[in-house]
Amino acid sequence: MEKVNIAEKFDLFEEYWTPKIIGQLNGQDVKIAKVKGEFVWHDHANEDEMFLIIKGTLKLEFRDRTITLHQGEMLVIPKGIEHKPIAEEEVHLLLFEPTSTKHTGEIVHEMTKTDHDRI
Amino acid sequence: MEKVNIAEKFDLFEEYWTPKIIGQLNGQDVKIAKVKGEFVWHDHANEDEMFLIIKGTLKLEFRDRTITLHQGEMLVIPKGIEHKPIAEEEVHLLLFEPTSTKHTGEIVHEMTKTDHDRI
After folding, report:
1. What's the CATH superfamily of A6-98?
2. Per-residue pLDDT of chain B (119 residues; tens, 9 = 90+)
3. How far is B108 from chain A (nearest CA, A)?
4. Which end of chain B has less neighbouring CB within 10 Å, N or C?
């Protein structure tokens, strides 16, 4: 049982769109990610996903609307809802989702990372 | 699907040791709480619990050690581990735990709240 300093964890990596696991509980992962640019349209058939913005502004495009999240804001995206994250500047995110959720859903794309390192 | 501003949610209530639900996903609750003073010794037999400190400093006493969490730090407490939170000054917490987790575990105490409001 060790405490985690979230800012220190963000200092451990630079790469974008590569979530890192910083905690696990009840079959769920707590992950952090740095993102910049546009991600791919995808959904998660069986998993709800939560984004919490640690730094920056993240635009989440949905098929019927766009939601813009600022620092200190969070959003739960229910399973099955297609979304496309866009970060004009670097954004630091905290994610909460079931263990083994693939970040691009069932879409296999050059941005897909299948190993989410624990840091 | 609506975004949540965490600071605005903290402005909606004053009472201590009364977690409020601000999000739900995959059978888990995201809760916030204001705490000050000493809580009761308890554990959660079947649920891991996560604390993330939004503001202040929280001391978590365990039977074999004490872990002090500052703003921006988090800790996962595995199920079955007895703990006692102590906040010398007001602390704002974000909690992740399975829906319907009782915040005092199986201990029934005057501090026990069985209804966790969604705000």
Report:
1. Jelly Rolls (2.60.120.10)
2. 999 999 999 999 999 999 999 999 999 999 999 999 999 999 998 899 999 999 999 999 999 999 999 999 999 999 999 999 999 999 999 999 888 777 777 666 767 776 667 77
3. 23
4. N
